[in-house]
Amino acid sequence: MSALTYTRHGDYLLPDIVLSEPSPELAEPLVKYGLLRKSYLKTRRPIFYNQLLLSEQLYPHLRETQQTADDRLDTLMTQLVMRDPPPGKATDGLAWAAHMSTLKHAAEEIVLDELIYE
């Protein structure tokens, strides 16, 4: 492990910390679940957030959480639709949309509890 160096800025010594360049696959922007996880870590678990940030593991963690949440949401939606089938979309489109919205909300609540806010 290399020694940490400092630079004087006025009356303060600030550590010389330089993050490496991100890899091209990490250049893809975060979306809903990755951003929610980031916000949660930043506000509710700041020490863990800073550890991930300084070790350059924050964005890989957020991307993994985002991918896992998307996959889990798809799986839950499939299971919920099988368990509680919606009315026919062609015959009653409004009831179908309301039913699917309710199922998606239920699946998102499960994903948020399991993956984002844990």
Structure in words:
The chain has 118 residues and is mainly alpha-helical. It has one domain. Helix content is 61%, strand content 7%. It is built from four helices and two strands, in the order ββαααα. It has helices spanning 32-44, 46-54, 58-83, 93-116; strands spanning 6-9, 12-15. Strands 1-2 form a two-stranded antiparallel ribbon. The radius of gyration is 21 Å and the shape is elongated. The protein starts with 5 loop residues before the first strand and ends with a helix. 11% of the residues are buried. The model has no long low-confidence stretch (mean pLDDT 91).
Summary of the model, kept short:
With 118 residues, the chain is mainly α. The chain has helices at residues 32-44, 46-54, 58-83, 93-116; strands at residues 6-9, 12-15.
Estimate the global geometry from the Cα principal axes: elongated
Biggest β-sheet: strands ordered side by side in the sheet? 1-2
Main β-sheet description: 2 strands, antiparallel
Unreliable spans are none
Radius of gyration: 21 Å
* Mean pLDDT, all residues: 91
